[in-house]
Amino acid sequence: MHILILNGPNINLLGLREPDIYGSETYEDLVHQLREYAESLDISVSLYQSNHEGSLVDRIQAARFDIDAIIINPAAYSHTSIAILDALKAVHLPTVEVHISNPKERETFRHYSYVSEYAEKVIMGQGVAGYCQAIDYLVNTYRKK
Ligand SMILES: O=C1C[C@@](O)(C(=O)O)C[C@@H](O)[C@@H]1O
Predict the structure, then answer these.
(1) What is the complex's ipTM, to 2 decimals?
(2) Which of 22, 31, 34, 77 gets the most CB atoms within 10 Å of its CB?
(3) Which residues neighbour 105 within 8 Å (Cβ) at sequence distance 6 or greater?
């Protein structure tokens, strides 16, 4: 099984950005942790982070060729991007949305996520552990027996 893990704007600054909200682990720590976790489950992961909406759309479109499922933290684009929602609908892969914080408990402009219109599961407020929970969900639900 091959899972694409996508992260949107400012997730590259994990550890530095608002550590009281997002924790002290860096994006590099997260990548390392997810690669190790995937290896322990005998699945493959591709990781991609971009601060650009169109680049995220391009990566989602390319996923139709070799990816079985998507984990996405669209970051601020969650609350604005119909383009990312449309790309996810177009490739039509099982998708889990992850947020490190719980946007529903923050400013009202973070309460709505376009991506949640498509994602079959949303994991919020679990810190970076939320990404591993998303992997578990996809592996348990979709890994071919
Ligand atoms: O950049 C982010 C990160 C976030 O997606 C999270 O992981 O908690 C929550 C978003 O509201 C915010 O814009």
Answers:
(1) 0.99
(2) 77
(3) 125
